[in-house]
Amino acid sequence: MSQEALMTFAGYGKFFLTLFIFIMFYGYAYSIYKRQKTGERDFEKYSNLVLNDSLDSPPLEPRDRK
Amino acid sequence: MQSNAQLEYDYSVVKLFTFATILFGIIGMTIGVIIAFQLAFPELSNLAGEYGTFSRLRPLHTNGVAFGFTLSGIFATWYYVGQRTLKMSLKESKFLMTVAKLHFWLYFITILLAVVTLILGYTTSKEYAELEWPLDLLVVVWWVLWGVSMFGMIGLRRERAIYVSIWYYMSSFLAVAMLYLFNNMEVPTFFWSGDAPSSLMHSISMYSGTNDALVQWWYGHNAVAFVFTTPIIAIIYYFLPKESGQPIFSYKLSVLAFWGLMFVYLWAGGHHLLYSTVPDWMQTMGSAMSVVLILPSWGSAINMLLTMKGEWQQLQTSPLIKFMILASTFYMLSTIEGPIQAIKSVNAIAHFTDWIPGHVHDGTLGWVGFMIIASLYHMAPRIYKRELYSKKLMDTQFWLQTTGIVLYFTSMWIAGITQGMMWRAYDDYGSLLYSFIDTVEVLHPYYTLRGIGGLFYLIGFFMFAFNMYKTATSGRVLDKEPANASPMA
Ligand code: HEM
What we know:
The structure holds two protein chains of two kinds. Chain A is mainly α. Chain A is built from two helices and no strands. Chain A starts with a helix and ends in a 15-residue tail after the last helix. Chain B is mainly α. In chain B, 71% of the residues lie in helices and 1% in strands. Chain B has helices at 12-40, 54-86, 94-120, 133-155, 164-183, 209-228, 230-244, 251-265, 280-292, 294-307, 314-317, 319-342, 344-350, 355-383, 391-424, 436-474, and strands at residues 186-188, 203-205. At the A-B interface, helix 1 and helix 2 of A face helix 7 and helix 8 of B. Protoporphyrin IX containing FE binds at residues 29, 32-33, 35-36, 39, 58, 61-62, 65-66, 69-70, 356-357, 360-361, 364-365, 368-369, 454, 457-458 of chain B.
């Protein structure tokens, strides 16, 4: 591949990669706020992972340990 | 699930790393103060032969504070925050306990060896990657051990949800592993030099020229990102809500800022190589990404400040909250200052001047140092089961160190910009107006001020060490673990 073709390829690659991540990121942001709003999932409750972190307080979302 | 009525969190490894944080903090910062005064009074460079010169001591300072003080603080808090938010105890697994202890001892030995080898002059000459190849191999071993303990603890957790601090610790583990391996690709010359004389301790980089510079600053800048930033964010996301008893202002924002930071940070290293032989588009990208970096950085910082909403009176009553709030404020300051310095036209003045160490230290002293100090203070009553020894001393320490930081960065701002302007000043005929020594004379008072500021910070650190020692040995014994605000006498 010629130098110029390589640079062009890298340029387009960088542009579309950034665009892709941009869309993913804002899509994710939108989905988080939407899920919170519709009550599908409460993200704010995860603050309690810090506030109730003693070993005998019940886990927020218990996990089965075999 | 088995009953955990008698089960307790195990803090033995936390205690070991706490000790290391204080020890390496004292060593690293004492050397910082020495080199600061050497810059003001060059005679001081000649007190201990080759071992006391600025060039020997500077890497000792940077390695001591970054990989000694900061990393120990990160590991201490990891074993504390990890167990608590995952709701698992190291006591539950002999294997993980052994890994954690081994992690500590190998780490400790490596840093001690680092001190010795750097003093003796063994260095690869790559900034923040100075350690020679045998030490690099040791680093890889304990880094992997940290990973084993991290993912092992996550595997044994009772809590399904993984708290955002743990994400930040994980990112730090993964990113540093990748960066370290790539940047430290080196050839030990001893084995390939044939008959030519070569030291067993010597190696050369696998990359050369511009490529070497690029890999170096991709690593160098992200060492700042994944040693001085993400793990410290992990620390503040646990300790500020815990100490203040307040839920995070917005958990959603913390998650978004996380992904924003992850994507943007890795592209910003090019700003260390503006106006160099690196391709122009990479320099522009480095600048652009640095400016974008303001968003996720301020996202976390503002989230922390807003967490105190309605609870600002705690700032008056608790020196610990003061440390943490000032830390996030300094985080905001350095994450606006860095992007400004990364703009090409500003960088033309700022590069190679004292403004850069000025910028480095409002981040490291104000943000990293204060957060690690605050988290150790918060952990002390829980791990030693004793009340903090003296609130008054803590308050004095806070004001002394804050004054020290302000003296440090203001003097370096003025010194740096003066220096940058003098270097480029020319007369009507295009001749330079000043020679190098002219700048040195003008900068002398600012160097002295910086040394004094650093000394204030160091004295404050000794107060911290004393307060911690007294807490562990003679603080009032607590009968029950404090829920939020740390008890202090
Ligand atoms: C007692 C406080 C401290 C003093 C007096 C001090 C002093 C210094 C001095 C004089 C330099 C060399 C600057 C130059 O070459 O022009 C330096 C560099 C550096 N220090 Fe400190 N330091 C202190 C604490 C810290 C801490 C706590 C950290 C990190 C946690 C830190 C991280 C660094 C780094 C990364 C550099 C290299 C900066 C660069 O290459 O631009 N320092 N310090």
